[in-house]
Design goal:
Blueprint (H helix, E strand, L loop, with lengths): L12 E6 L5 E6 L3 E7 L5 E7 H11 L1
Antiparallel strand pairs: 1-2, 3-4
GO molecular function: structural constituent of ribosome
Organism: Campylobacter avium LMG 24591
Family: Belongs to the bacterial ribosomal protein bL28 family.
């Protein structure tokens, strides 16, 4: 299963681990995904993987 947010499309980013001696090695920054249940219009429940930052935005805009 891909590490991608179902709503915003956020995925892994690439960067560097930087040591005290300034050595650089590649690393991945993964999105903070949460599995949430949503109720569809026809009454069925489906699980989707959503980034935590997207959930915060949804809660902020729903008020």
């Amino acid at each position: 299963m891909a590490r991608i947010c179902a709503l915003s499309g956020k995925g892994p980013m690439v960067g560097n681990n930087v040591s005290h001696a300034n050595n650089k090695t590649k690393r991945r920054f993964l999105p903070n995904l949460r599995t949430v249940r949503i109720k569809l219009e026809d009454g069925t429940v489906k699980k989707i993987r959503v980034a935590a930052s997207t959930l915060r935005t949804l809660r902020k805009n729903s008020k």
